């Protein structure tokens, strides 16, 4: 890996995983000293690689450093390989992102930051647990003459039952999404060191933006940009979770990379008072549909106003009132087969075809879902991406910010307050705002 210069992360990590010993050896191999005892100018530079050559059981969250004494570091290559009898190579280097192509992942690449004086290189990310690590470095003296150095060591395995893994994510690699789309990550175990995990997940967009991770609970993190994504661009997410200390002796074991595309800018507004549903694309109105929303005689049958996102869609769907607390066999219960359903909340709200509703554009008579003519619902179904903004106005029931993906209900300040770091994250490939490593002294 060539030198990669990135801004130095802020903050100091802490915490020691149980059973993971750190062996620090003074460093390094590759000296070319003259056997007669005289040294040339090229031999005046020396390098210390930490952890040192031959170290075993190294904590994977300890920073890897290459320090040049009497010169500057000019090149560092870090290779991680599975020891004989360990997990398969594919499990260590392949992408595990719910939809990405197989092969080596950029998230597995060990990049580093060079100090201002060029004398010290420090790894940006943690190392994979249970691997053999080879470090090859080149340093030059004041005359520009280079010398090579190397060291090999191994990292400690994550303990069984304490291996943090990615359980699911939205979107998946290859998805085309709307301009409001968040990145949602679900872990299989609770995360205590949320800032450490947060800083290990880097979001990069072709069009620079600013965003932040927020924690919905101990196992769910969501990235939302400050402003909607600009349309027609690619976004990548490098989740460098391998080696991160998630707390309580739990370490991440694999890296993941997502690559998705933001499509056209399509936004929909539903006005409960005018009974109209207007669709704009790239700033131009392209559709104006008659609709009929919730009749609002109960809270359950009141359509939620506020900022929503389209979430998922079904060509055919069974709608059951029991899912919103109304038994099917009660006077107000229902169980219907509907076509062209597009979800926009977790409280049972979908746009869908309702050929039985003769009051489209005139009155609100539904159980809470915006009813549409079959041809209109089909168009919306076929032309909706996951993450398209959908705004509802005119009802007295405001959507909760965590009902579905209604994260845009929160102001940027309130969203940022849900980040463990409390700092915005630039999406221009300049790194994350805080520390990912643990303290070598702990």
From TrEMBL:
Pfam families assigned: Big_10 (PF17964), YkuD (PF03734)
SUPFAM superfamilies from the UniProt entry: L,D-transpeptidase catalytic domain-like
Pathway given in the UniProt record: Cell wall biogenesis; peptidoglycan biosynthesis
Listed PROSITE patterns: LD_TPASE, PROKAR_LIPOPROTEIN
Keywords: Acyltransferase, Cell shape, Cell wall biogenesis/degradation, Peptidoglycan synthesis, Signal, Transferase
Region annotated Disordered, chain positions: 68-127, 418-442
Biased composition (Polar residues): 110-125
Domain (L,D-TPase catalytic) ranges: 266-393
Name of the protein in its database record: Ig-like domain-containing protein
């Amino acid at each position: 890996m060539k030198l990669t210069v990135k801004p130095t992360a802020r903050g100091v990590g802490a915490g020691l995983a149980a059973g993971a010993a750190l062996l620090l050896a003074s460093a390094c191999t590759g000296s070319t000293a003259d056997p007669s005892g005289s040294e040339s100018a090229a031999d005046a530079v020396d390098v210390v690689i930490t952890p040192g050559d031959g170290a075993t059981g190294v904590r994977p969250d300890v920073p890897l450093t290459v320090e040049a004494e009497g010169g500057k570091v000019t090149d560092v290559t870090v290779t991680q390989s599975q020891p004989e009898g360990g997990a398969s190579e594919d499990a260590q280097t392949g992408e595990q992102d719910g939809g990405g192509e197989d092969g080596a992942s950029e998230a597995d690449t060990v990049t580093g930051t060079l100090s201002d004086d060029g004398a010290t290189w420090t790894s940006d990310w943690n190392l994979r647990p249970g691997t053999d690590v080879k470090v090859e470095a080149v340093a030059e003296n004041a005359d520009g003459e280079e010398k090579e150095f190397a060291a090999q060591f191994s990292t400690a395995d994550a303990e069984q039952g304490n291996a943090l893994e990615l359980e699911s994510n939205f979107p998946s690699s290859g998805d085309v999404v709307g301009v409001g789309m968040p990145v949602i990550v679900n872990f299989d175990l609770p995360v205590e060191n949320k800032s450490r995990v947060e800083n290990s997940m880097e979001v990069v967009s072709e069009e620079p933006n600013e965003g932040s991770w927020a924690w919905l609970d101990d196992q769910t993190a969501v990235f939302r940009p400050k402003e909607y994504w600009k349309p027609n661009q690619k976004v990548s997410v490098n989740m460098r979770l391998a080696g991160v200390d998630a707390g309580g002796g739990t370490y991440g074991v694999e890296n993941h990379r997502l690559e998705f595309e933001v499509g056209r800018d399509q936004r929909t507004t539903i006005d409960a008072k005018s009974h109209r549903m207007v669709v704009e694309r790239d700033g131009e109105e392209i559709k104006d549909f008659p609709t009929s929303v919730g009749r609002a005689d109960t809270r359950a049958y009141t359509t939620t106003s506020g900022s929503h996102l389209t979430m998922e869609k079904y060509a055919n769907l069974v709608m059951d009132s029991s899912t919103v607390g109304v038994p099917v066999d009660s006077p107000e219960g229902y169980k219907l087969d509907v076509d062209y359903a597009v979800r926009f909340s977790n409280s049972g709200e979908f746009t869908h075809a309702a050929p039985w509703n003769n009051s489209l554009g005139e009155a609100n008579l539904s159980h809470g879902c915006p009813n549409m003519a079959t041809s209109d619902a089909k168009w919306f179904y076929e032309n909706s991406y996951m993450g398209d903004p959908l705004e509802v106005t005119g009802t007295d029931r405001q959507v909760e910010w965590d009902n579905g993906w209604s994260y845009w209900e929160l102001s940027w300040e309130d969203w940022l307050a849900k980040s463990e770091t409390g700092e915005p994250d630039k999406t221009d490939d300049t790194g994350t705002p805080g520390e990912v490593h643990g303290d070598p002294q702990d």
